[in-house]
Amino acid sequence: MSVERVLLTHGGGGRMARSLIENIVSTFDNPALNRMEDASPIDIPAGVGEPLKKRSAGAVAQWQPRIVMTTDSFVVTPLFFPGGDIGKLSVCGTVNDLATAGAVPAALSVGLIIEEGFPVSDLERVLSSMKKTADSVPVPLVTGDTKVVEKGRGDGVYISTAGIGAVRPGIELSPARIEEGDAVLISGPIGNHEASVLSARNDLSLGVQIESDCAPLSGLMQAVIEVVPEAKCARDPTRGGVAAVLCELAESAGCTILLDEETIPIDEPVQGLCDILGLDPLQMANEGKMIVIVPGSKVQTGLEAMKSVYVGRNSVKIGEVQKGAGRLIMKTPYGTSRIITMPVGNQLPRIC
Amino acid sequence: MSVERVLLTHGGGGRMARSLIENIVSTFDNPALNRMEDASPIDIPAGVGEPLKKRSAGAVAQWQPRIVMTTDSFVVTPLFFPGGDIGKLSVCGTVNDLATAGAVPAALSVGLIIEEGFPVSDLERVLSSMKKTADSVPVPLVTGDTKVVEKGRGDGVYISTAGIGAVRPGIELSPARIEEGDAVLISGPIGNHEASVLSARNDLSLGVQIESDCAPLSGLMQAVIEVVPEAKCARDPTRGGVAAVLCELAESAGCTILLDEETIPIDEPVQGLCDILGLDPLQMANEGKMIVIVPGSKVQTGLEAMKSVYVGRNSVKIGEVQKGAGRLIMKTPYGTSRIITMPVGNQLPRIC
User: Fold this and answer.
1) Containing structural domain, residue A138
2) Which of B68, B160, B161, B197 is the best mutation test for A, with the most CBs of A within 10 A?
3) Which residues in chain A have Cβ-Cβ distances shorter than 8 Å to B346?
4) Model confidence at B214: pLDDT above 60
5) Are B190 and B237 in contact (CB under 8 A)?
6) How far apart are CA A282 and CA A241, in angstroms?
7) CB within 8 A of A60, min separation 6: which ones?
8) Across the interface, do A12 and B158 touch by the CB < 8 Å criterion?
9) d(C-alpha B112, C-alpha B13), whole Å
10) Residue B16 in contact with residue B10, Cβ under 8 Å?
11) Contact B98/B107 with Cβ under 8 angstroms?
12) Which of B139, B146, B108, B143 is CA-nearest to residue B37?
């Protein structure tokens, strides 16, 4: 673009707005978006209409994928942090919400609320990060909108993404299906995203740099579903962390979830940061981790599938579902156990 | 809710966030949203899979509606203005973008970015306005997200809505289809939304209160398509007004669009406000008007369909498409004509 900073007039409907939008469109460059229509056509990914293990020419027309929709707004500060930025985050968050439904992402939309004076170079950096992440899924960004607010009425840029995905017939991930005997798997160590943002925000010198785990997980979920189509439920533990997600699932399912503290993977620098600041890693936000609940008999198959994808290489089983009254219980290495309750607020505002 | 103002902790992932979200979910109360999943199932409205005038039992399975997606962010100030508020606007804007594609709205999502300290009563007012407007379409709000930013990093509430719609087979609204001999129809008088926001913002005492035209137009577009399936293109003239939309269409289509100034409907108070402040009504934003381009032979049929819907009761023909080099030309009542160029910026920031 020919200017260095976003101006209020870029938020209008005229030539300047169009130049901003053309700049954005050229970053993402796909047929649906390039049309620059107010509403963009969606292609449902080929093959999703067929149920797993039932692929036959005659059956195709009988099956329709279910369409699911999700949205997330992103207000993370700082906008750039080790391992990611608000652009990457805004694609991962929405793709991962689709993944929790077992969906193959079909399309994303983006709404930008830009603060007057925001450097165009930062905007371009954020957009190309979105593009790179979306391409890695892959999912096209098919439509978008930009608004500009006065200086002091925003904070650089806020991003809202919405996503559409398609779910294969026969896949039904839902907390209602969780039952006694199921196992709780997680795709890797927890707390890295929140620890990364926390250190970046406060300019903490910790000796080591903690990177956000920020990553799209739809590929990991598709790998699981391919071999364990009977998987029960999946959740990405973002705000409120593993504690919030599992408290909610235990309550919805009306079962006890028993976590084994020794098995919960936490990277050493994250644990160190938590120890110093008195934070609970179980409540720390993740942006590239998936909790998958599978039948007890499918633990090995599920873990192998998760580990076959790079972002899931450190997947482990961390707990079991038992009969009970909807509680989350942690078994400590000392043989004792304690009830974990739903976090009340958040440890750190604006982590995503 | 049990508190009067939104707190930063309402943006976390814990119990307080959940209470805020439950409050929102209970406002909209539909099966997809009530599941409170990260990604919500979408039902494509029944019948949209069948092409018009080709309905027969055997043909149904052969036809699929096209799915389209759109998004918009809303930062209007003030949040409440005569004839609407940011909640109503956020539903209308997205529904109307779907309508420009000829789509029947299937689902909406909402992302709220709330400023710390925002009165909960105002939030509830905005949400119930969204609900009322969505019900009138009707379209379910199936998924959402809330974030809270510190005081001074927002302005009350910003709303991002995304929408999915389904387009009947055979309907293809696109600027590329515009050609010589087509007619330009508009669903009523222009400029009311921007005039309403402008007077509300500046507390102008004009003697009369100008109400925003803010309204969902998917019903109007369906009425047109039912009788004029060969309609060429539709646009809602929001930011940049009729001038921006028609300049863009003339350019895309590579035709001249000739407007007849005498036929362009403008309410007297809006014209008065424009005269006093030196604003061009043609550049004023509308939030409840649709420009529809139809073949010249279908003007009467199209207008009758538009007028059959209450929001289109004042529909008129305002122009014609002629051979030419992609320009918008206005014929004045004095027999002269002038070229109208794309507005550069905007007359008023944050009108939507």
Assistant:
1) 66-167
2) B160
3) 8-9, 11-14, 17
4) yes
5) yes
6) 6
7) A49, A50
8) no
9) 15
10) yes
11) no
12) B143
Under an 8 A CB cutoff, do B111 and A345 touch? no
Helix (H/G/I), strand (E/B), else coil: A20: helix
Partners of A13 on chain B (C-beta within 8 Å) are 238-241, 244, 285, 343, 346
Condensed to tens digits (0 to 9), the pLDDT of residues A296-333 reads 999 999 999 999 999 999 999 999 999 999 999 999 99
The CATH number covering residue A223 comes to: 3.90.650.10
3-class secondary-structure state, position B281: helix
Angle between helices A120-136 and A86-100 (to 10 degrees): 30
Q: Are residues B194 and B98 in the same domain?
A: no
Q: Decide which of B45 and A123 is more confident.
A: A123
Would you call B39 and A98 a contact, using CB atoms and an 8 Å cutoff? yes
- Cα separation of A244 and A285, whole Å? 10
Indicate if B103 and B239 belong to the same structural domain: no
What are the phi and psi torsion angles at A133 (to 5°)?
-65, -45
Query: B314 and B189 in contact (C-beta within 8 Å)?
Result: yes
Instruction: List the beta strands (DSSP E) in chain A.
Output: 40-42, 66-74, 80-81, 84-85, 104-115, 141-149, 157-167, 182-186, 233-235, 256-260, 291-295, 316-322, 328-331, 337-340
pTM: 0.93
Q: 3-state class of B256 per DSSP? A: strand
Q: Any residues with CB less than 8 A from the CB of B55 and at least 6 apart, and which? A: none
Percent pLDDT > 70 in chain B is 95
Taking the CB of residue A117, how many other CB atoms lie within 10 A of it?
16
Let me know if residue B303 belongs to a domain: yes
* Whole-number Cα distances in Å, B165 to A56, A106, B99, B100: 30, 14, 8, 11
CA distance B347 to B217: 25
**pLDDT tens digit sequence for B284-317:** 999 999 999 999 999 999 999 999 999 999 999 9
Among A167, A188, A212, the domain-final residue is: A167
- The answer to whether the CB of A82 falls within 8 A of the CB of A151 is no
Across the range B122-143, mean pLDDT stands at: 94
Give the C-alpha separation, A21 to B247, whole Å.
16
CB-nearest partner of A41 from B61, B66, B238: B66
Cis peptide before A237 (omega within 30 of 0): no
Residue B347: partners with Cβ closer than 8 Å, 6 or more residues away: A12, B194, B279, B280, B283, B284
Residue A59 has pLDDT above 60, yes or no: no
Give pLDDT, residue B1: 64
What are the backbone angles phi and psi of residue B99, rounded to the nearest 5°? Answer: -60, -35
Residues near A7 by Cβ (< 8 Å), separated by ≥ 6?
A: A16, A116, A148
d(CA A258, CA B84): 50
How many domains, chain B? 2
Please give the angle made by the CA atoms of A333, A335 and A339, to the nearest 5 degrees. Answer: 90
**Single-letter code of the amino acid located at A117:** G
Domain containing B122 — which CATH number? 3.30.1330.10
Task: Check whether residue B312 and residue B328 sit in a common domain.
Answer: yes
């498409």: which residue's tokens? Answer: B321
Residues B277 and B334 in one domain: yes
ipTM reported for the complex surpasses 0.85: yes
**Quick one: which H or E segment has residue A219?**
helix A218-227
Two tokens, residue B277: 């402040």
